[in-house]
Hints:
By secondary structure, the chain is an alpha/beta fold. Helix content is 41%, strand content 15%. It has helices at 19-33, 45-52, 56-69, 99-105, 121-132, 146-160, 176-186, 202-210, 253-266, 289-292, 320-333, 339-350, 353-378, 399-411, 441-455; strands at 41-42, 72-75, 79-82, 107-108, 169-173, 193-198, 214-221, 224-225, 236-239, 269-273, 297-302, 314-318, 391-395, 414-415, 417-418, 431-435. The protein has an 8-stranded mixed beta sheet. Strands 1-3-2 form a 3-stranded antiparallel beta sheet. Helix 2 (45-52) packs across helix 3 (56-69), helix 7 runs parallel beside helix 8 (202-210) and helix 13 packs parallel to helix 15 (441-455). The longest helix is centred in the last third of the chain and has 26 residues, at 353-378.
Amino acid sequence: xxxxxxxxxxxxxxxxxxxxxxxxxxxxxxxxxxxxxxxxxxxxxxxxxxxxxxxxxxxxxxxxxxxxxxxxxxxxxxxxxxxxxxxxxxxxxxxxxxxxxxxxxxxxxxxxxxxxxxxxxxxxxxxxxxxxxxxxxxxxxxxxxxxxxxxxxxxxxxxxxxxxxxxxxxxxxxxxxxxxxxxxxxxxxxxxxxxxxxxxxxxxxxxxxxxxxxxxxxxxxxxxxxxxxxxxxxxxxxxxxxxxxxxxxxxxxxxxxxxxxxxxxxxxxxxxxxxxxxxxxxxxxxxxxxxxxxxxxxxxxxxxxxxxxxxxxxxxxxxxxxxxxxxxxxxxxxxxxxxxxxxxxxxxxxxxxxxxxxxxxxxxxxxxxxxxxxxxxxxxxxxxxxxxxxxxxxxxxxxxxxxxxxxxxxxxxxxxxxxxxxxxxxxxxxxxxxxxxxxxxxxxxxxxxxxxxxxxxxxx
Length: 460
């Protein structure tokens, strides 16, 4: 029997991070850096709880999370072990392979990455050359360069129908997660509750928790956020109404109005993450909550999905009081968005290259989505998500089926992202979010038959 190693775990009971999250993070780190190795046997949840002086609920939750991510696997009658790849299989038991070896050659279909390969290289080089000719700054501009904010204001008006008027202010940011953290520290108070869509964007969850806030799940369905289910005690609501992440639906008009009304009645701040709102293929881009209720909505956008994370910038449109608090926080801490990426966007917009890229991007991703959906549906695979963005969802019935699908796909050279990890509480949606922007078309066409074979009905 494998020997149980001494676990490198120290829990901080004074931290705002839940004990189960701390435990999972430390075990994950130990498995990732080699302190725990494949085949190491872990203590039972009961034994570990006794060793750490915590409830068994804490250790069980940590193990469940690591199991969902594929770091550990249970062996019937033997115990729980560290593994290098997600456990399980859908239809057959393939030969074990090392996860690190497979990842080097796997087709990456995880969502969240842009079609960076579609950026016209001459335009990219031209924008960087022009940006390099700007004289070095003497003092930082905490709000963002005026020319960048003007370019974003034009972009929002042209592509998102949002006119930045006198009742709101536009700031440059370092991206949506950083902006969420800024709002958490500058506008909200430690210990206040923020509702986040469930399943939802976990980097925002991490940013809000790091700011000392309590994150509570807010359920969603095919029409988006269930407004009536949001606890009254929250101070803010984080949502993605135009294209819910990761399920891919849109918030209905009725729920948008209901959310705004509750926000005004109960003094909520609504944080609208419009991470890929420019990418809609069936109808015109959906109206923003910020246009409906600029007094209670903070709009966040990013260049990461329409261009590249290389730039490291985004924007925030918010009421003046919110902007003043964020700027005061930036001044007090010395932080702020870097100007280099802002200057590149300015040059891309000035030469019309940004608009041309967006047109190519919509055309390419629309075609890719059609290929993905047509191939999967023809193979008997159910697909969720609006005709928008850069990912679709393939649901499966259980956590076990999700883990099995991810394992089997990886064995065959396809990397997928499971829905279970996108939850704050107990997972209730299972399946994979399938991204189709970052890979090449050739890779996509090679990977889709694998998905059909693994998820589609058995061939008789």
